Amino acid sequence: MTSPAALAVHPLSTDALLGGSKVLRARPGTALEWVRLIRDGISAAAIDALARALKLTQSELAHALAIPERTLARRKKEGTLNSEESAKLVRLARVVERAEEVFEDLDAALDWLKSPNAALAGATPLSLIDTDIGAQSVTDTLGRIEHGVFA
């Protein structure tokens, strides 16, 4: 029998990682709503929200996103990320959400994301998320872990 707690929705969601509706000024529920939000540009406050949630320094986050630190600092002053930067931020948050789902614990997920992984040619999953193909490799690996292919 499945416990009520097991049926609960994970409290960690992409929008929560990015600061929630307060930062996003929206509650995107569908892929198309995310597309519109990304195209319009996400609030630069999402940078700090994600860095806090992932326990990363500004420098580490900039590296993971492949966005220069100076650019992130400039965007904070301007208030909004461009669509490409917004897409990278959302992609990272989505991968973290998926990792937390698989490991059922944010700290375990973050440890996994920051550790070299043999299934990813020794790279850390976090270092691959700056590209679509890298992020897909990370989510594929998470799927295999979830199904017991990698212990």
What does this structure look like?
This protein has 151 residues and is mostly helical. Helix 4 packs across helix 8 and helix 8 crosses helix 9. The chain contains ten helices and no strands. The protein has one domain. The radius of gyration is 15 Å and the shape is globular. It is 64% helix and 0% strand.
**What is the count of DSSP helices, taking H or I runs of 4+ residues?**
10
Task: Note poorly predicted spans.
Answer: 1-9
Number of strands: 0
Task: Give the termini separation.
Answer: 25 Å
Overall structural class, as computed from helix and strand content, comes to mainly alpha
Give me the Rg, rounded.
15 Å
For the biggest sheet, the summary is: none
Q: What's the helical proportion of residues? A: 55-70%
The percent range for strand residues is: under 5%
Order of helices and strands: HHHHHHHHHH
Q: How many separate structural domains? A: 1
| Average pLDDT figure | 90
Q: Tell me, what's the shape?
A: globular
Fold blueprint:
Elements: H1 4-7, H2 14-17, H3 20-24, H4 31-40, H5 45-54, H6 58-65, H7 69-78, H8 83-103, H9 106-114, H10 132-146
Entry keywords:
151 residues; globular; 10 helices; mainly alpha
